[in-house]
Amino acid sequence: MLGVLGVVAGMSAVFGSVRSVSLGWLLPLSGVYLHLDRVGGFFLALTGAVAVPVGVYLIGYARREHLGAVPLTVLPVFVAAMGLVAAAGSVTTFLFGWESMAIASLVLVFTEHRRPEARSAGVFYAVMTQLGFVAILIGLLVASAAVGGGNRFETLAGVPERTRALVFVLTMAGFGSKAGLVPLHAWLPRAHPEAPSPVSALMSAAMVNLGVYGIVRFDLQLLGPGPRWWGLTLVIAGGVTAVYGVLQASVASDLKRLLAFSTTENMGLITLALGAATLLADAGAAGAATVAMAAAVLHLVAHTAFKCLGFLGAGSVLAGTGLRDLDRLGGLARRMPGTTVLFGVAALGASGLPLGAGFVSEWLLVQSLTHTGVQRDPVVALAAPLAVGAVALTAGLGVAAMVKAFGVGFLARPRSEQAADAREASGSMLAGMGIAAGACVLLGVLPLLAGPVVRRVVAELPASRAREFTGLAWTIRLPGLAGSVAPGAIAVAVVGVVVVLAAAVRWRAGRNPAREVLPLWACGADAPTSRMQYTATSFAEPLQRVFDDVLRPDTDIQITPLAESRYLVDKVAYRARISDAVEERLHRPVVTAVRVAAWAVARAHTGSVHLYLAYGAVGVLIVLVVSR
């Protein structure tokens, strides 16, 4: 119900007039002010569009996984808080919704708190999300103070030039942390795998979008379009995030961790597109800037669809087998045919190939970077080819990651008893995944259906107002640039070729005489086992070797000789572990420092009322001195 309400309210704001509601009694001092325009309505509709299939899916998932009352109660609160963030029209309302969203999601991450992995992920997420909130809080307070204490968003447009750079840096760090931008991404591959799968779908397909919303709303709309270095910063952050995220996804063997790093990758592509639009607008390439902004908006829609479907599919695998390790899965196509087909749709969308949900948006991004038309601008001339290279590398590695997830996880032979005894998802779980899969198919074949929404949102942002984007039709054309593609025609051609080939094979089979069935000559290996096929680890090993300096794998080989002779080998044990180098070097010291500070604060709470009164007196004195 909340999802449907979000979609209806969001679409009415995108296609209708701006709506405002003021509830002065709901929060002390400031009240609640809602102001729903096209940009906020778009993100509200995305949030609602994720909540609908998740709600349907949750009916069967909760019964199979025996979810308790706490997560089932907090989930609607989480959805409502995300909706409040998108609909907020004042700084205090936005911060209230943002912190409510963070607390609700933290409770949901701690659902399985009895497992040490879940507790560690929850602590990591708590530290990172609160540090990000502090950066956002300081940035918005600085902006409000610069305009004389203005609370509503429209007043922030008057922030002086000398203050905007500081606000941009602070908000970029805070919102980038929520969006999973490197190096502030470490919470994402930890929290997403440990949360229940419906929660993972909401966090990865809806909540991270609101990190992008913060950048778009405050940095690109209210304070923007911004100087050239803003766009260059977004391009660099987005490119590094996309490449690093897809590298980690391509070597991950945990299915949900792979999808989490895929989210980091796609948030990087979206941020890169936003930065490209800002940079190109400053260079005077209005057409290319509009195409880049349209690519960012359309990729937000596509990522919402295929990542929601991907995590719901991973949840079905986990519920049917109890496994997330791709090295122990396999053979699910026979036991879980519905889940296999639906996850295949998500994998096709995430790979960026034709007929996939993410193909058109990535094609638009590449076209905007290759048709800049400002070769005399040295910054654009240098940044655009490097950005194209980052997008191309990301697309290639993304295909490898999704081939590994689908091929190793669902095809071939089962590698464990749990995979061999897998159970298909329930009807409501398949129905929820079917809704998301339908959206993926429509976006891949008929992206023109998203054209009116994309056009209205792009027209609201300063970097892309100079030229209207009307290219999303049956044949997608670029405003003012050369290039076109027709996804619908590609789909018709592919279906036609498949039908013709199937008919030809059937006709040829009918003409051939009956054949005698004999055993296959297999060079002595006529009884293959699951140990003879690729695992996720062996599939990714060549990529691991190529990017060894970035991934820094920890490998160990232990050779145990026979007791009778040290020259004869009894067994060989091989261990490989690929950790997140950024997390190990940057985030672990921060989390450790927060733990030490929390321990010190806990020691200060002795239970003595007199000591607490002394703390209060010292605090009041400090406030008076600072105020004076």
Structure description:
The protein has helices spanning 2-15, 38-65, 69-87, 91-109, 116-146, 161-179, 188-194, 197-222, 228-251, 255-282, 286-321, 332-335, 337-351, 359-370, 378-410, 417-420, 427-445, 451-460, 487-511, 536-546, 548-551, 581-604, 609-627; strands at 19-23, 32-36, 476-477, 484-485, 554-561, 569-577. The chain is mainly alpha-helical and 628 residues long. Helix 2 packs antiparallel against helix 3 (69-87), helix 2 (38-65) runs parallel beside helix 11 and helix 10 (255-282) packs antiparallel against helix 11 (286-321). The model has no long low-confidence stretch (mean pLDDT 87).
Break the fold down into its secondary structure elements and pairings:
Layout: H1 2-15, E1 19-23, E2 32-36, H2 38-65, H3 69-87, H4 91-109, H5 116-146, H6 161-179, H7 188-194, H8 197-222, H9 228-251, H10 255-282, H11 286-321, H12 332-335, H13 337-351, H14 359-370, H15 378-410, H16 417-420, H17 427-445, H18 451-460, E3 476-477, E4 484-485, H19 487-511, H20 536-546, H21 548-551, E5 554-561, E6 569-577, H22 581-604, H23 609-627
Antiparallel strand pairs: 1-2, 3-4, 5-6
Helix pairs in contact: 1-2, 2-3, 2-8, 2-11, 2-17, 3-4, 3-8, 4-5, 5-6, 5-7, 6-8, 7-8, 7-10, 8-10, 8-11, 9-10, 9-15, 10-11, 10-15, 11-13, 11-14, 11-17, 11-18, 13-15, 13-17, 14-15
What low-confidence regions span 5 or more consecutive residues with pLDDT below 50? none
Termini distance? 52 Å
The general outline is globular
Q: How would you characterize the largest beta sheet?
A: 2 strands, antiparallel
Could you tell me the radius of gyration in angstroms? 26 Å
Order of helices and strands: HEEHHHHHHHHHHHHHHHHHEEHHHEEHH
Helical stretch count? Answer: 23
- By DSSP, the count of extended strands is 6
Sheet-strand content, in percent, reads under 5%
Q: Strand sequence of the main sheet, in spatial order?
A: 1-2
What percent of residues adopt helix (DSSP H or I)? 55-70%
